[in-house]
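Quick entry, no commentary yet.
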Amino acid sequence: MLAEESGLPNGRTIDYVVDGLSLRGTLFEPMAEGGSHGGVLVFPDALGVGSHARSRARRLAQAGYVALACDLHGDGKRQDSLQQAVPLIQALSARPDGIRALGVAALEALLAQPGIDPLRVAAIGYCFGGAMALELGRSGAPLAALVGFHSGLARLDGDAGRIRGRVLVCLGAEDPVVDAGQRSAFEAEMRAVGVDWQLHLYGGVYHRLPAP
């Protein structure tokens, strides 16, 4: 059990498995009992699930959602540095089916919780987690909304025409990782299939690097 923060909901660990990898996410639920709730998958940055993703999931629970801070690397482990995380992320990116499998497993774990309204489920993510959220949407997963913060935009293997929900991407204009060319390609991809999308660009803002 995580320590309570200023009256916000506590989280509880839930375990799920994909392709033999044991994953450990942290689930946050609204403090008010009863009724149905929307759900949100919170995909972390490349280092894996940690205090940032959990704090965002906790805030979403305070707002009335059931939120799952999702594991990337197994056993709830967060990498100590980008140097450790990059080879793992590169291996994942080389297998888009593996990225989608991680996302689908997290979605199934969330939908298995009592009181979830399956028509009101979203996925959000930070940095690599934003790319994961978008790719999960491109897989045709039943998501009402997709949000990426400092998100990778490149299509790995999914089809944007299968996105069911609305898309919001928030990027820094000075992000050296996601440049103007990638933004233009993303816009063209969204327009081509008629997705309801928005891209918010923040002037003078660089890429947020994950901290251990």
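second:
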Amino acid sequence: MTHPSPSEWELMRRHFSDERLRLYLVQVNGDEDAAARLYQWNSRCSAAFWEALGHLEVSLRNALDARLMLRQRKQGQARHWVFDDARQLGRDVRGVGRHTYPYQDIAIAISRVQANGKPLDPAQIISELPFGFWHQLVARRQMFLWPDLAAAFTHAPNRSPVPVRNRLARMRDLRNRIGHHHRIWSLDLDARWDDLLTLTGWIDPELRAWIDTNTDVPAALSLRP
């Protein structure tokens, strides 16, 4: 991180707004130089976490997709679960925000694939499903799915859904904060990094090691001003 000059701070005020920067100033007792460094560090950590969260999300949806497909076959359903005519995923329920799960999310994903002119195949639809969809699959109200989904986390210490659910909730919050360019320095980022590595390790320890080696999160965290 570079040392901001007075002109750089004024540039930040002009484009990022006093209201946005106020929280950074409060954190460092009004020191503009320190506030600018904190802002830069927040951006660097956000970028590093975003990369790692992408690896978690793709591996999570692939692991859960595989388990859901096995469940479909056991239920005698020939079609992929995203085309779930028998509603094997349960009824739509109100979730966080204004959306309902799971079929509204699937319907929105299908409409996006169609709007983009892509083939209406399961892989394309799954790629359009939000992180919240996967989190909701392990929610308490979807517990009837857990006996089948638990095997997606084959390296977890036990078959309880609670540790998975809680960590996914924290990852979802972190992902949303970064996606909306909110501050994340106010979170326990070391703990969030541990959450991410733990979840990926429960899917596959080799994946955890690969992410830990090939992302910039540890380096970014070490540079906190």
